[in-house]
Amino acid sequence: MSDARKYIDGLRQAWRDEKAAALVYRAAAGREGDPTRRDIFARIAGEEEKHASRWEDRLRELGSDPGPFSLTLAEKARMQSLLSRGNNAVVRAMEMEEKKADGVYESLVALAPSDGDRAVLLEAKREEKAHDLVLGEMAASGQPEHPRLLLDAILGRERWHVRSGGWIGQAIYGINDGLGAAFGVVSGVAGATHVNGSFVLLSGFASMIASALSMGSGAYLATKSEREVHEAELARERREIAEKPEEEAEELALFYQLKGFAPEESRTMAARLAENPEEMLKTLAHEELGLSEQAFPHVWRSAISATVSTAVGAAVPVLPYLFSTGVTALVVSFVISTLAHFAVGAAKVIVTGRKWWRSGLEMMLIGLGEAAITYGIGLLVAPLLG
Fold first, then answer.
1. CATH number for the domain including 82?
2. Contact call for residues 133 and 155 (beta carbons, < 8 A)
3. Which residues span the domain enclosing 221?
4. What is the dihedral of CA 169, 164, 162, 232, to 10 degrees?
5. Fewest CB within 10 A of the end CB: N or C in the chain?
6. CA-based angle 95:17:89, to the nearest 5?
7. For residues 52 and 55, what is the distance between their CA atoms, to the nearest angstrom?
8. Is 63 a member of any domain?
9. The pTM is what?
10. Quick one: 287 and 303 in the same domain?
């Protein structure tokens, strides 16, 4: 599947998720007796609806109108079941959904076809993270702590903040993408040419090079944009410290209160840091944005990681054809590619936290299905090749 198709499918799923989440939050707001909590539910619902509207408009621009939204019977039943357990259950369940949404947007950023798409997705990712934090406070104490409400109000005005991702997941994605693409190409060409080793070898290596260069250039552009956004955020934060030092000191004090310090202690520490603007900038960048110089995305490391990992994954189905021919090479390629799919799926637990055997089995079955389909298509095309 091409990156463009993956992006559209991911955006369509994000649109559905946001629409469904907004319904849950609206329903929870209608059942909430506490005015503060009711306002938070309504505000989050409004932001989810805004996200859904953005994705709907973008899907239309991409020629994939999502059409009218409606819940399936199963989704309606789950929603009613959740609401029947009360709003505390809603808070806990939606906190998990916000964490999942953050991961979905992380994946979409890597697939985004333009800087404009990436910027909007990063903004949505930041807002989902903010929802997660607010719901976490509600789940922990029954209602948000007073400092969190004040801090959320400040951060709501600073809508340009985002957080960074990691390159390890990108490398795993690269191996998976290269392996899947090359396995499909090798299987399809093998079926079409009756396992002609020369054709399979040539097409496999062409697929490997094209996939690696595509992934590497995409990672370079995406990471470069992310780093530029981070650097711009620090510049804005530095300017805010210079122009509004009192407000920034108050913001930092609220962070310290959330860590358990008394209000007076928090203000004292914030005032001490305010005497050194650069140290205050580093602290605010870490506390407010989750940024540090060490956490900045490395453009070339991401690009090289994506290129090499994709090439490694794509090489697996091709290598047997360097040492063997005919059915033997096909069988060896099939076996090692199947095992590689399982290994890559199991390795995904590094970033997903799922059970390794389940993730590996899922990836292996997907790879087998892809190979079977492309091999079958190759057999159908074979008569046309003479």
1. 1.20.1260.10
2. no
3. 167-226+298-385
4. -140
5. C
6. 30
7. 5
8. yes
9. 0.43
10. no
